[in-house]
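agent> Task received from the user: take the single chain below, predict its 3D structure, and emit structure tokens. No templates, no multimer pairing.
agent> Plan: (1) validate residues, (2) run structure prediction, (3) serialize to tokens, (4) report one or two observations.
agent> Step 1 OK, no nonstandard residues flagged.
tool_call: predict_structure(input=
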Amino acid sequence: MDYTEFSGKSLESAISEAGKSFSVPVEGLDYEIVDMGTSGFLGFNSKPTIIRAKIKDEYLEEVKKAEAEKAAAAEPVHSEVVASEPVKAEEVPASDEADFDAADSSDLINTVDTFLSDLFEAMKMEVSTQVSYDPEERCVDIDLSGPEMGILIGKRGQTLDSVQYLVSLIVNKGTGEYIRVKVDTEKYRSRRQKTLENLAHNLSFKVKRTRRPVTLEPMNPYERRIIHSALQGDRYVTTHSEGEEPFRRVVITLKK
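)
tool_result: status=success, residues=256
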């Protein structure tokens, strides 16, 4: 039997692909490594592991026997059909779409896990990651934990936002439909949202009292949306954004 080439993100995944293709366990494979590949830096410029594999001689006879039995079972069996008994319709197997979705989700989660592991290793930080994917919302949720989360959050969440941006680049590389990414740690996002909502309401009172507009410090688009949303229903003030990124900021003014 001739060798066939297989590839994967790691040696284990390449061997697993070969086993699935030949329908034999891993110990039934005879393989040699063509290229070990590289993980790249932070997931970029990575190369897959490539192997050449074939079925071991001692397993080859078992595979041929199994294929022969399968072919024999597939032959039509002629039997007399009693007219009085209705013939049951053949059940159509369920679609494999769910299986494919599950496999895609698993691959996506593994890709994010590997990237974050490389990232935090380069940052020399001990961080545990919990990654989940909601296919209906098309959103990757990542929760981080560790002894140095204050450093990872950074000033006003800037470092956390940078991690989120990098993961979004990895997740959406070569995909057709955009996948959202949310990275959080120690419930920072919800705490920051409450802080900004309180700030918005306090500054709206100041605008009403002084009857002068108030300009907030520069914020990213996510935080500006929180301010806009917090005051959206206010009868007396309105909000708008001014400036260019990354110095764009929210301005609160009295309604005319």
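agent> Step 4: summary for the user.
The first strand starts at residue 4 and ends at 8.
agent> Done.
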